[in-house]
Each structure stands twice: as structure tokens, then as C-alpha cells.
């Protein structure tokens, strides 16, 4: 014998005996071509009257998840089409990874929205949130522009003017600042993920993402395997003694130096958020510095140690113009120190 039907009653609310239990459904009826039609939406109330009431009023207002109309020209549809397009497969692996990260954010926040309704003002507002991270803002604008042009040219969607055109262009006129000695000295107060990431970036010379996702087996005695994200290759380089000592002192908690679990690393965004919170605690004088600045510090430290440009490039994988730019800073520091010491 079935248990008694719940006594909760509302207009358009019906109870159906399904798979051994009473299930509430929102039922709408209408007449079409002389025949009565109906449509029911299951309300997953989980036995909670308050949840049932919430779901019921959503259905009454036409706002229940099952009543939503999927947009034909949505960001999600465009991104999914781009990811399987043969032309996108020809991009460098590192470039695809960068686009994927931004596209994942877009799908999470705006996936089911009609991308044609995106305004230039909305794009500007999104970029303004990353005003202190020009490269991230630039990548976001580039990705929006890429998808917009793909939708118009490859999918033949009726798109208007590209709202991201000309926005977020990264200007190299504001290069990353190498960390000062006082900030390095404060690393002991940073969260563990930031402290580990900072040492890996500084001593491997890798880009932050590659350093943050390093596996423990990438350091093997006097040698380490680093990732050149731009070139899409792994390189074996010498591991400096400070990094060997630091890595040895870390308690293994997974396959990676900054583990999310036993087999996966923490992502760049999580570490970057922790870094920004820690940087804020240091005061305004710390605001100009980013995780990327540790790569530039690596150039200066190597130059001050007497390494040639070719040797610095072999360690950090950075271009000759970038190495030359930061070498000037190293030379200025070394010369100023020598000059000032003559005064004593």
C-alpha cells in the first residue's frame, strides 16, 4: 500500500506516484486545435516544504531551470564549436591553454547568454577589474574578439560590431618590476602556496603557471625539467642549490609541489588570489609587484652573478631583448654599489 500523499496543495501542483514515492510536479494545461495539451515539470523538493515552495514559485513565474529557452547564439555554443574547429587545433599548445582558461570563465558566467547582446561597455567593465593585470585583461579581450570573429566568419551568425575590437591591448611600456630585497625577505609571512610558487618561479625562471604546476619528480638531484610554455617543450637545466635545498625541505603531500590533491596541482588563479591578498597586507609599496616580477628578478640575479646573456636565456627561456633590458638594471645596481663603497 502506498504511503499517504502529501497534503501540500497549490494551483497547478500535482502529485505523481513515481518509483516508490510521491513526486510533486508543476502542471500547465491549454487547448490547442481543439485538443487539450499539458506539460509537467518535476520539482526536486528533496522532501523539504520550503524548497518545494521556492521551486513552485519559480515554475509559476516561468523561471524554473526546465523552462529556460536555450539561446541559439550563446557563448557556450560558440566556444564548443571553436574547440572542435580544425583551425584551432593548429595553434600552439600554450596558446590553446591560455584561450581555454578564459573560455572556461566565460562559459561559467555567461555560457547560456546570447553573445550578440554583449556591449562594448560590458567588456570595458570586465577589463577594468584587471587594471593591475594588463596581460590578463589583454588575453580576456583577445579571446572575446577571437570568438566574435569566429561566430561571424565561420558560423555565419548574424553578429554586429565586435565589442572587444581594440580593447585590452597590452603595452610593453610598463614591464614587470623585479621584486625588491625587502619583499623577498617578507616571503616567510606569505601563505605556503605563495611561498612555494615564489621560490619555484625565481629559481627555475619559468612562467608562473608552469612553475605553480610543477611536479616533484621534475627536480632530480642536480638537474630539473622545466617547461617552455611558449615553445611547447620541456627542457633539462641545472637546478641551483637554493632550490634543491628548498624542495627537499617541503613535506610531500602529492605528486606536485603545490598540490590540490594527490594527483592534481593547484591552479594559477588560486595561487594568484592568495598572492594578491598577501601583497595587500604588505601595504601600498608592494602593489607594483606581481608573480611575473620574480622571473625578471631571476635575470638580474643571474646577471649580477656574472652569467652571459646566452646563459641567462638557457635558464629562463626569455628573449634576448628582455634579457638585455633587465641586464641594464643589474649593471646599474652593481656599478652604483661599487661607486658608493668607494666613499666609505
From TrEMBL:
Domain of life, per lineage: Bacteria
Gene3D superfamilies the record matches: Intergrase catalytic core
GO molecular function per UniProt: DNA binding
PROSITE patterns recorded: TYR_RECOMBINASE
GO BP, sorted A to Z: DNA integration; DNA recombination
Protein name as annotated: Uncharacterized protein
Organism, scientific name: Brevirhabdus pacifica
Amino acid at each position: 500500500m502506498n504511503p499517504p500523499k502529501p497534503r501540500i496543495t497549490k494551483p497547478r501542483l500535482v502529485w505523481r506516484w513515481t518509483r516508490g514515492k510521491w513526486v510533486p510536479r508543476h502542471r500547465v494545461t491549454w487547448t490547442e486545435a481543439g485538443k487539450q495539451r499539458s506539460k509537467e515539470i518535476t520539482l526536486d523538493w528533496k522532501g523539504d516544504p520550503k524548497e518545494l515552495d521556492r521551486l513552485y514559485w519559480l515554475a509559476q513565474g516561468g523561471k524554473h531551470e526546465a523552462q529556460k529557452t536555450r539561446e541559439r547564439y550563446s557563448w557556450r555554443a560558440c566556444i564548443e564549436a571553436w574547440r572542435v574547429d580544425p583551425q584551432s587545433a593548429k595553434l600552439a599548445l600554450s596558446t590553446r591553454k591560455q584561450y581555454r582558461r578564459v573560455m572556461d570563465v566565460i562559459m561559467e558566467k555567461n555560457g547560456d547568454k546570447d553573445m550578440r547582446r554583449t556591449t562594448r561597455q560590458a567588456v570595458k567593465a570586465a577589463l577594468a577589474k584587471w587594471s593591475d593585470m594588463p596581460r590578463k585583461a589583454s588575453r580576456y579581450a583577445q579571446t572575446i574578439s577571437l570568438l566574435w570573429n569566429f561566430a561571424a566568419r565561420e558560423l555565419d551568425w548574424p553578429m554586429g560590431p565586435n565589442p572587444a575590437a581594440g580593447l585590452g591591448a597590452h603595452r610593453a611600456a610598463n614591464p614587470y618590476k623585479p621584486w625588491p630585497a625587502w619583499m623577498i625577505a617578507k616571503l616567510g609571512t606569505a601563505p605556503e602556496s605563495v611561498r612555494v610558487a615564489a621560490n619555484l618561479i625565481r629559481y627555475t625562471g619559468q612562467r608562473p603557471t608552469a612553475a605553480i604546476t610543477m611536479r616533484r619528480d621534475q627536480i632530480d638531484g642536480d638537474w630539473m625539467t622545466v617547461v617552455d610554455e611558449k615553445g611547447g617543450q620541456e627542457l633539462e637545466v641545472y637546478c641551483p642549490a637554493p632550490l634543491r635545498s628548498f624542495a627537499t625541505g617541503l613535506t610531500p603531500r602529492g605528486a606536485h609541489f603545490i598540490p590540490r590533491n594527490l594527483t592534481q596541482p593547484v591552479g594559477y588563479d588560486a595561487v594568484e588570489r592568495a598572492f594578491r591578498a598577501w601583497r595587500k597586507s604588505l601595504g601600498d609599496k608592494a602593489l607594483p609587484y606581481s608573480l611575473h616580477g620574480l622571473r625578471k628578478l631571476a635575470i638580474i640575479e643571474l646577471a649580477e652573478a656574472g652569467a652571459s646573456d646566452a646563459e641567462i636565456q638557457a635558464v629562463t627561456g626569455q628573449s634576448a631583448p628582455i634579457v638585455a633590458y633587465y641586464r641594464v638594471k643589474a649593471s646599474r645596481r652593481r656599478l652604483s654599489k661599487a661607486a658608493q663603497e668607494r666613499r666609505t
